[in-house]
Amino acid sequence: MSKAIHLSEDSFKSAIHENTGKIIIDFWAPWCGPCRSLGKTLDTLSCEHEDIKIYKINVDECPFLVEEYDISSIPAMLFFNNGKLIDQTVGLITKMDILRKFY
């Protein structure tokens, strides 16, 4: 079962600043096949690594965040550690590559 939390533009900043530790922001859309595939990987990851919080941003519903973080292609992920952006990826990546961002 996914532990990913869907964020809006209003809830994004508080989610990042109120949570210390490891955070992944997944920029996705329901019509994007690769996004759905990555979503399954993130669901697995969220069950196996409870120290990583996973949030989802629907690009169709959050255009200001898409612009702010210069998201030009999806799936895209932002990686935060203790409130600081540490990396950003575009496209499908493996679970191991995701984990390497933090460990």
Please give a structural write-up:
The protein is of the alpha/beta class and 103 residues long. The protein has a single domain (5-100), classed as Glutaredoxin (3-Layer(aba) Sandwich). The chain has four helices and five strands, in the order βαβαβαββα. A five-stranded mixed sheet has the order 1-3-2-4-5, with helices on one face.
Topology summary:
Elements (H helix, E strand, L loop, with lengths): L4 E2 L2 H10 L3 E7 L4 H16 L3 E7 L4 H6 L7 E6 L2 E7 L4 H6 L3
Parallel strand pairs: 1-3, 2-3
Antiparallel strand pairs: 2-4, 4-5
Describe this protein with a few key phrases.
single chain; 103 residues; alpha/beta; 5-stranded mixed β-sheet
Short description:
This protein is of the alpha/beta class and 103 residues long. The protein contains four helices and five strands.
Task: Kindly provide the name of the CATH class.
Answer: Alpha Beta
Helix content: 25-40%
Largest sheet: 5 strands, mixed
Structural class: alpha/beta
Radius of gyration: 12 Å
Give the N-terminus to C-terminus distance in angstroms: 24 Å
Contiguous helical run count? 4
Strand order of the largest sheet: 1-3-2-4-5
What is the general shape? globular
The H/E string reads EHEHEHEEH
What's the average pLDDT? 92
CATH fourth-tier homologous superfamily: Glutaredoxin
